[in-house]
């Protein structure tokens, strides 16, 4: 049975490394120039200051999904409204045969962030692996589109 929970970076990181590589290979735009090199020190500092929250999906202890959010006490434009901005969201490709796993994980995350006290949650969704319909089912709306260029 898959269990969802909030975890610290120190607990999640060692188990996340194999999934991070899969995540990078599957979804990163411009891999010929953009290399996977997470800045763990900055993530640790953000977490210490309350600016990072991590949620995991584990099946008998094995990490099968993760999500991390930058929690901003007040956005630069909307300083009165705490926001959670998605950094990463990933489900192990071998576990995607269960069409409800991602949906249940997103619902869990949504409830947790609400309880955390944020006024808005923002996800970025890749066109190649679009989970926007799941987000829409739990009340999200498409807000903007991001364009990228490798220079």
Tell me, rounded to a whole number, the average pLDDT: 94
In spatial order, strands of the major sheet run 1-2-3-4-5
Quickly count the domains. Answer: 1
Which CATH class is shown? Alpha Beta
Biggest sheet features: 5 strands, mixed
What brief labels describe this structure?
Aminopeptidase; 151 residues; five-stranded mixed β-sheet; alpha+beta; 4 helices
Task: Give a written overview of the molecule.
This protein has four helices and five strands; from the N terminus they run E-H-H-E-E-E-H-E-H. Helix content is 34%, strand content 25%. With 151 residues, the chain is an alpha+beta fold. It has a five-stranded mixed beta sheet, with helices on both faces. A hairpin with a 2-residue loop joins strand 2 and strand 3 (62-72). The longest helix has 19 residues, at 9-27. The mean pLDDT is 94.
In short:
This protein has helices at residues 9-27, 40-48, 99-116, 132-137; strands at residues 2-7, 52-59, 62-72, 83-91, 120-122. By secondary structure, it is an alpha+beta fold.
């Amino acid at each position: 049975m898959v269990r969802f929970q909030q975890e610290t970076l120190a607990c999640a990181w060692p188990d996340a490394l194999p999934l991070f590589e899969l995540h990078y290979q599957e979804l990163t735009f411009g891999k010929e120039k953009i290399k996977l090199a997470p800045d763990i020190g900055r993530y640790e500092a953000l977490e210490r200051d309350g600016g990072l929250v991590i949620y995991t999906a584990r099946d008998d202890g094995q990490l099968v999904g993760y999500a991390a959010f930058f929690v901003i006490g007040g956005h630069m434009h909307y300083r009165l409204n705490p926001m959670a901005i998605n950094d990463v969201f990933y489900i192990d490709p071998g576990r995607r045969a269960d069409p409800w796993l991602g949906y249940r994980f997103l619902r869990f995350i949504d409830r947790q962030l609400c309880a955390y006290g944020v006024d808005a949650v923002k996800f970025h969704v890749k066109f190649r692996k679009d989970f926007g319909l799941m987000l829409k089912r739990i009340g999200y709306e498409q807000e903007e589109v991001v364009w990228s260029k490798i220079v």
